[in-house]
């Protein structure tokens, strides 16, 4: 909160105690702290829009996420990039470029499952793009192999962004556990970030078919 020079802080009531502690430690202004639900000392998020017109303000500029380094050589450092001089309403085509490479189109009944922490650049990018493309987004609290399968079945997930380690742990589940969940809704299970062993890739393709798609970056 202090390093990023944030002007506002928004937290869900589910994380109320952590949010209160963070605001107190950072000395963050109470009038700039907003809550989804009720958090003592925070203003309701609705106050940001109450009394405001329904039309978009003039001169809007697309925002950008400020990611932090991993902190391997000290404290994590914020990486601030310049803003793109494009109206947010015109960002759809640009944001659709990467998903379109995999045949993932806007809307089209897609449901994206976020299976890794949002502080990772690729994870936040795929999740943000999903929202911009009008897709339903399901966030996991904590990744476990069986919980992922349960959510795929429950929400009829169509795509996700994964890493090979998650494939390994999925394959470590007993065969009867893996067979007990319906994953027929899957269309694009994209993975990257690290090399995927051939045996693991083959076993995942045997299980999830041609939904397994890899990129290098």
Care to give the gist of this entry?
The protein is of the alpha/beta class and 217 residues long. It has eight helices and ten strands. It has two domains: 1-52, no CATH class; 88-214, Rossmann fold.
Describe the structure.
The protein is an alpha/beta fold. The chain has 2 domains: 52 residues, no CATH class; 127 residues, Rossmann fold. Helix content is 31%, strand content 15%. The chain has a 5-stranded parallel β-sheet, with helices on both faces. A 3-stranded parallel β-sheet has the order 1-2-3, with helices on one face. A two-stranded antiparallel ribbon has the order 4-5. Strand 9, helix 8 and strand 10 form a beta-alpha-beta unit. Helix 6 packs across helix 8. It is globular, with a radius of gyration of 20 Å.
CATH C-level name of the largest domain: Alpha Beta
Span between termini = 30 Å
Total number of beta strands: 10
What's the number of helices? Answer: 8
**What is the strand arrangement across the widest sheet?**
7-6-8-9-10
What's the overall average pLDDT, rounded? 92
Helix % is 25-40%
User: Helix- and strand-based class?
Assistant: alpha/beta
State which percent range the strand residues make up. 15-25%
Q: Give the total of domains.
A: 2
Provide the CATH architecture of the largest domain.
3-Layer(aba) Sandwich
